[in-house]
Structures are given as structure tokens and as C-alpha cells.
Amino acid sequence: MHCPFCRYPDSRVIDSRSSDDGSSIRRRRECPECNQRFSTAETASLMVLKRSGVLEQFSREKIVNGVRKACQGRPVTDADLAVLAQKVEETIRATGTAQINAHEVGLAILEPLRQLDEVAFMRFASVYQGWETLEDFEAAISLLKIERETDKLTGIDLEPQI
């Protein structure tokens, strides 16, 4: 870790603290050259393996942008999308892997999106899962109705707020 003051190529850790959510570590450091103190934040990197074979850093912003298209014209706020992206990231990080397939990221989006807005869910799922026929949509709507009834029976209120 280079010192931000004198650019000395080393520093020593004085204190380390975990963030409240456990996703990062804040370290207090001191430069042995100029004795200045500074803080760093360290997070575990999460890589996404795309279909093309390219590895890229996980990005909540990419989740928000992808889902925003499905939510166009729906009563979904930017704050709702930020919470959805956070839930997706938490789900993925809970797997404990440092690298995840892009398809699994899409699967992790489906349930929080269904809870947020069923119409947006149908839009996203139809593109993501490649529905091509009316029967594909009918089957998904039937499954959605069954899940809604199951949620009602178990006392979970997942009705979209319109």
C-alpha cells in the first residue's frame, strides 16, 4: 500500500475494523517514512464470468441498469432498484464464491424482482429466459398465480404496491 502523502511503497497496519455488514474491512495505516496516518477500505472482489468467457467485476450498477429497463413505466423508484441490487449482491456473496456465472446472477435477480413488481418480473424473465411463445408466458403466469396463492397461505404479503 503506497502512502498517499509521500508515495512510500509500504505502510503498517495500526488498527483493523470490520464494517457493520461485514462486507469490508477498514484499516488504519501509518507510513514508516513520513509517519502520516491514513485509512483504507478493503473489500472482497466478486467476479462474474460472462457467456463470452470474459471475467468482469460484479457491479450493482449493471444490475440496476438491466432491471430498470424491465421496470420502465412501472411504479418502481431508484431506491427500490438499489435495494434490489443490494439483495442480489448479498445472495451471491452468501454463496461464498469469488467467481460466479452471469446466468446465476440473472437467477438471483428473479425472486427479488418478483417481490418488487410482478409485471417487471415478467418482462425481465421473458427476455432473460428467452420465452418465444404465448404458451411460455401462460405457463409463467400460471406459476406466478400459484406462488402468489402459496404466499397468501403462508402469510407472506407479496402483493405489488400500486
Automatic annotation (TrEMBL):
PROSITE patterns on file: ATP_CONE
Keyword Transcription in record: yes
Residue ranges occupied by any ATP-cone domain in the UniProt entry: 46-136
Any one Gene Ontology molecular-function term assigned to this protein's record: ATP binding
Keyword ATP-binding: yes
Keywords in alphabetical order: ATP-binding, DNA-binding, Nucleotide-binding, Repressor, Transcription, Transcription regulation
Record-linked InterPro entries: ATP-cone_dom, NrdR-like_N, RNR_NrdR-like
Annotated signal peptide: none
GO annotation, biological process: negative regulation of DNA-templated transcription
Protein name: Unannotated protein
